[in-house]
């Protein structure tokens, strides 16, 4: 026999909170990775005197990589 689990307002709020925290985590990770790669590009620019190309490259590579990971992670969500 199949029993259906009753969803209560409290359960719905918990699921909504979990979803919000998951997105918050992705946002923090996204900004952190962009910042680190951009800073590494900036430092490489200072060393090799190629301002601003390596910084922009770091930003672009990190942005594309994080978008790829975000799509990969959220593809299975429904």
Which key phrases capture this entry?
0% strand; 2 helices; 78 residues; elongated; mainly alpha
Describe what this molecule looks like in 3D.
With 78 residues, the protein is an all-alpha fold. The protein has a domain at 25-74. Helix content is 79%, strand content 0%. It is built from 2 helices and no strands. Helix 1 packs antiparallel against helix 2. 8% of the residues are buried. The model has no long low-confidence stretch (mean pLDDT 89).
User: Total helix count?
Assistant: 2
**Total count of strands:** 0
* Helix share, percent: over 70%
Summed over residues and divided by their number, the pLDDT gives a mean of 89
User: Helix/strand/pairing class, anyone?
Assistant: mainly alpha
Share in β-strands = under 5%
Q: Main β-sheet: number of strands, strand sense, barrel status?
A: none
Outline type: elongated
What is the string of helix and strand elements? Answer: HH
Low-confidence stretches: none
N-end to C-end Cα span: 26 Å
Rg on CA atoms, Å? 20 Å
